[in-house]
Structures are given as C-alpha cells and as structure tokens.
Design brief:
By secondary structure, this protein is α/β, with parallel strands linked by helices. The protein folds into five domains: about 5-80, Valyl/Leucyl/Isoleucyl-tRNA synthetase, editing domain (Isoleucyl-tRNA Synthetase, domain 2), CATH 3.90.740.10; about 100-170, no CATH class; about 175-245, no CATH class; about 300-425, Isoleucyl-tRNA Synthetase, Domain 1 (Orthogonal Bundle), CATH 1.10.730.10; about 430-490, Roll (Ubiquitin-like (UB roll)), CATH 3.10.20.590. Helix content is about 35%, strand content about 15%. It contains 15 helices and 18 strands. The strands form six sheets. It has a four-stranded antiparallel sheet, with no helix packed on it. A four-stranded mixed sheet has the order 16-15-18-17. Strands 1-2-3 form a three-stranded mixed sheet, covered by helices on one side. Strand 15 (about 430-435) and strand 16 (about 440-445) form a beta hairpin. Helix 8 packs across helix 9, helix 10 (about 330-350) runs antiparallel to helix 11 and helix 10 (about 330-350) runs parallel beside helix 12.
Length: about 500
Amino acid sequence: MDAGTGAIMAVPAHDQRDLEFARAHHLPVRVVVQPEGGQPCDPDTMTEAVAGQGTTINSGAYDGLAWPETKARITQDLAARGWGGPAVNYRLRDWLISRQRYWGAPIPMVHCEQCGVVPVPDSELPVVLPDAEEVDLQPKGESPLASHPTWSKTACPHCSGEARRDTDTMDTFVDSSWYFLRYCSPGRADVPFDAADVARWVPVDQYTGGIEHAILHLLYARFVTKALCDLGHVDFVEPFKRLKSQGMVIMHGAKMSKSKGNLVEPKDVMGEYGADTLRTAVLFAGPIEDDVDWADVSEAGVFRWLGRLCRLVDDHMSAGGEQAEAAGDVGEVERATHQAIAAITADFDQFKYNTAIAKLMELSNAVGAAQRAGARGPAVAHALESLAVMLSPIAPFVAEELWQRLGRQPSVAFAQWPVPDPAKLVTDTVTVPVQVDGKVRGEVEVAAEAGEDDVVAAAREVDNVSRHLEGREMAKTIWVPGKLVNLVTRASS
C-alpha cells in the first residue's frame, strides 16, 4: 500500500505496529478503536498507540462494540459469507521436549543395538538424575549427562544386553505440566493424584501467569491433560477455564537483573513503605497484562494515599462516627459511594485493578471533600466501610486497620462485599464526544436520557463542530447512545 493508491490505514488505537507502518508509508490513518475512558484519539495528532482494548468506531455496523466482541462478530460474519472462520494453531515441537542440559526430567527411554529404543519399565521409574557435583556442566555440544562415566550405562529391559540411557532431558515446562493435579492430593504417596480430589477441584477456574507461559507451559499442561483424559484418569480435556496473562516488572525499559544493576528488591520497598504499599503500587501502575516499569512507579504517592484513608476514618470517628446525626450533603456522598461500588466491582471482575484503585482514590477524595463541607453520620460511615472492604483484596493490612478503627468486628476478610443501590446510580447528564467524519471535534453534555435528535442538535451548536460542518452537506449520523455521535458529511461518505 502507498499514499498514491488513496488507501486508508484503519488501526486500533492500541496497535503500535500498525500505527508505525501507516506513518512510515504516509498512509492516512483512521482510528477504529477508541480507548476506554479518557480523551478520544485523534489520528492527526496521536504519536503512539494507547494500551488497552476499547470501543469500536468508524466501522459501520460494528460501532459501539467492545473490541473483543467486534473481532468475534467479524469472524462470524466472514464465516456466514463463506470467506473464512476461526482456527486454533498449536505450536508443539519435538525440540521443545528434548533438551541437551542437566536440569530437567530424564527421558525414560534406553537405546539398545538389538532392540532399538525401549521404554524404561514402570517398576524402574522414576529415572533419577546423578548428583550435580558428579556432572561436568561445561559446554561440550551435547548433554552434560552424556559425559558422566556411569549414569548412562544400563541394561536393556527386553534382552538384558548392554544399553544406553537417553542423555537428553525434558524441558522444565514438561515437569510442571501436571502440578495442578498433584496439588489436589498432596498427602497421597501411593498415586500421583486421587481421582475424587481432582473431580472436586479441577478444572481450574482462573489461571493467571506470565505471558511466556501462554505457549509452553500451558500447551504442555493441556497436552498432558488430554492424554490423561484419553487414558481415563480425568474426565475433562481442558485443565483451565480462563486465562489471564500478566506483564513483568521492568526497570527503565529492561528486564530486571543483577548483571544489569537495575534490580529492585521487594524487601527494600517493604522495609520503607510496607507490603501494602508495594502491592498497591504495582497494581496501580497499569493494566495487569502490561509490563510495569518501576522507574515510573510512585511508592511514596501510594503510601501517602493509604495514610490519608486512615485520617479520613479518624476524622469520621472524631465527629461521632455512624452514631452522629446526619449532616451536610450526604446525598452526594451516597451517590459517589454507590457509583464507586458498581464501577469497582466491574473492574475487579475484569482484572482492571489499576482503574479499580483509581476509583477508590476518587471515592476517598469525595468523602474527604464531603467531610470538609460538614458531612457526617451513617452515609459517611457506609462510604468508609465500603472503601475498607473493596481495598482489602489489594491492601489487606491497611484495610484491616481501617475496619478496626471503624469499630467493626470481626475481620474485614469476613465482611460482605458491598452491593450498589440501582436507584442511587442514576446520573442526570452524560458527556458525549462529537466526531465529524470520524475525527473528534468536541464534546457535548446532554441529559442522560436524551435521544439522537437532541444530541445531534446540541452537537451542531458546538463551535468547533459547526466550523467543520460549514459548507458541507450532512449524509448521516452515527449515534452510540451515551458514548459518541459521528456526523458524516456527504463528501466523506
């Protein structure tokens, strides 16, 4: 593609490679996925992609859908037209199993000149590695086990003649491919796992791990599980119901290591700020699936916020706590509390811990402002209790301290998760981004229940919008209720 063809490069706002390709080839860019929340992307000014998923725009029938749903719908539409469909590709290779190194499970096979490759009998399993002190680990172009003077020498299980053990070892991901089954029966020494125990605990509801596990470890685990199912040892073919891959903690753009001198010891951070600050700072730094650059993390800022929460509770209790007569603008406190409960609960369900923490901070700011304006009584107590409970999965020690200062018993760990009151979630107005031919030109605040005609009329009154519509004939409007309105002129349609 090149600019001379008149082609337009449509890129999701989170795809940096597509954006760089379009810039390098001087292609006009049209953003088709806007980030969730925050400022809408303008293809004329954006210089880098935005992390996260987002909402589909400039895509006809797919406008307003979440990006994962858009991909699923496009796949369905392609299949319906006979143009394509979903497919699963596996990348399991022989060389991923056999490694030329000492560390790893020995491959239980022997090589006999008369009988060929023969499996080690079950009665002789497991094959045990020699002590590391007996093995020369210097590189020689073959497995270190091959140079051991006696370990590889054995007898053929079939003919009893001289044979050689396989000196390669299996990848360590293979070693851990069934650990989740063993966890179910840790007390059993006679079998790898008890079928009844496994039936109770597995499949695993949620698997969370580093992105490097997504191909090797998880693929091996699924392969082994399918084999065990075929053999009748388990009654399921997929060991994990859901997967969430997480990023790494890096420093100045590089993986932490002692050799690079960019290592941050968690114990040092905990010694200065405490474990809750460390945990909260890591989760607040960005989406769980992204790498966290510790150079950009503010432990001190998180530490100060946790301290402010304690002062909010102390101020509340000094004003009489829950027993104090209601005063001040408690309606605003109630609305902020229930909106926070709904939003934070949804964030937890979607692993959006960074935005959940941001909303906890917003709620604490709302409570602080209300207290300074004279609010007190049960509404403030409910807000602070909700804060403590929703903070507890992230900062359990501070949450427990808040809970006790509020006079609540027993532990916050046993408290009921707060439930929002739908009647107190209603907002009077919403802010809607306004696009002209797919480019954001302003925003308009309208009544939450406003219809398309009212929103379009208000949008046309925005100075920057009317300026870009001047001299153009309207072709159509794209209205995603409460999210965006796109005014499309005839020239661009």
